[in-house]
């Protein structure tokens, strides 16, 4: 048991160090942008018969379409433990949890905007053996209710959800290195929660590659990812740094618990660097 706990500590410490590294935090959004931009170029090299090419495959239904829900459960669970164990204040904990609430509101607003754009730019069609036949129906819900097809400019909600979930997850997990350096409680269960949440990052990147390979047109994927980057920038690099906001990750949390900050080897401006 001691060996397993030691291994868990090593893996957790190394993962926390990677996620808090300045290079990862500065260029992770660029990595996601490159995935969305250049992955479609590999489309001719991948067989369209693979399971990921089917719209109703298990990963699309259970993971991609509910990416933000998984992010709230796993990342939110880690955030709950981190904020409460370091502050001991329910009010402070709720304040930090409200970042995910803000993200939920933004996600819903963007997804509804995507539907509105598709509705405004689309028309109703009937699928026939000869091709698509235009139907004079201007109401999208009624068109779909009648079993017809609505064709409009459909922004990729999958590209948006996977990109935004990835960016939020990195922001919320990147403070663990400072948390551990300050000597706050870190049981095996706490570390396991962090590792489960951190596994979302490679998973979302993999599914983002799958999505950009097989679904939507190029511009639709780019626009979806751009919306996600904009939401992340306006919150974590804008609003959350202001006084009247949920606050940036680690705000009023990472204070010395067992030893002075200078003795722990962590500089006083590291928290500010995390917000850069």
From TrEMBL:
GO molecular function, one term: coenzyme A diphosphatase activity
UniProt keyword list: Endoplasmic reticulum, Membrane, Transmembrane, Transmembrane helix
InterPro entries, per the entry: FIT (IPR019388), FITM1/2 (IPR046401)
Spans through the membrane: 27-46, 67-86, 192-215
A GO cellular component annotation in the UniProt record: endoplasmic reticulum membrane
Compartmental location: Endoplasmic reticulum membrane
Name of the protein: Fat storage-inducing transmembrane protein 1
Lineage: Eukaryota, Metazoa, Chordata, Craniata, Vertebrata
């Amino acid at each position: 048991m001691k060996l397993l706990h030691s291994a868990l500590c090593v893996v957790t410490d190394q993962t926390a160090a990677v996620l808090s590294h300045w290079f990862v935090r500065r260029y992770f959004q660029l990595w996601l942008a490159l995935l969305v931009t250049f992955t479609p170029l590999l489309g001719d090299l991948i067989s369209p018969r693979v399971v990921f090419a089917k719209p109703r495959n298990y990963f699309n239904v259970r993971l991609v379409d509910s990416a933000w829900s998984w992010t709230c459960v796993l990342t939110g669970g880690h955030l709950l433990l981190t904020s409460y164990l370091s502050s001991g204040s329910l009010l402070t904990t709720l304040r930090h949890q409200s970042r995910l609430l803000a993200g939920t509101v933004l996600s819903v607003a963007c997804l509804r905007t995507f539907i509105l754009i598709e509705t405004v730019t689309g028309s109703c069609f009937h699928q026939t053996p000869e091709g698509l036949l235009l139907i004079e129906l201007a109401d999208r819900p009624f068109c779909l209710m009648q079993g017809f097809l609505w064709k409009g400019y459909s922004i990729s909600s999958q590209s948006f959800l996977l990109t935004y979930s990835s960016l939020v997850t990195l922001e919320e997990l990147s403070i663990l290195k400072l948390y551990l350096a300050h000597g706050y409680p870190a049981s095996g269960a706490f570390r396991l929660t962090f590792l489960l949440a951190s596994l979302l990052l490679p998973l979302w990147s993999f599914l983002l590659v799958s999505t950009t390979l097989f679904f939507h047109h190029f511009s639709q994927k780019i626009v979806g990812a751009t919306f996600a980057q904009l939401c992340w920038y306006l919150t974590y690099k804008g609003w959350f740094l202001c006084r009247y906001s949920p606050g940036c990750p680690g705000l009023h949390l990472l204070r010395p618990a067992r030893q002075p900050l200078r003795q722990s080897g962590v500089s006083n401006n590291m928290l500010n660097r995390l917000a850069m």
